[in-house]
Amino acid sequence: xxxxxxxxWVGYLASVVVAISxxxxxxxxxxxxxxxxxxxxxxxxxxxxxxxxxxxxxxxxLIDAYYLIKLYRKPTPPTD
Length: 80
What we know:
Elements: H1 6-21, H2 27-47, H3 51-73
Protein name: YgjV family protein
Keywords: Membrane, Transmembrane, Transmembrane helix
Transmembrane segments: 6-25
C-alpha cells in the first residue's frame, strides 16, 4: 500500500461514493451521490487511460444530471 498511485485512491473513493449512493432511499440523494461517484470515475478513467471506464461513467453523469433536472423542475401541487 506504500506505493499506491494517487489515482488509485480516486478510484477507491469513487467506488465508495457509488456504493453509498445505492443505499439512499431518497431518489434525489441517490442521483447526487451517484453523479459525484461517476464523475470521480470519469477522472479516474481518464487518468489511467481507461477510456471505456471514463465513457460509461460520463454517460452515467449525463443520465443523473438529466433526471436531477427533471426532479427539480417537477411542479409542486398548490397548497390552499
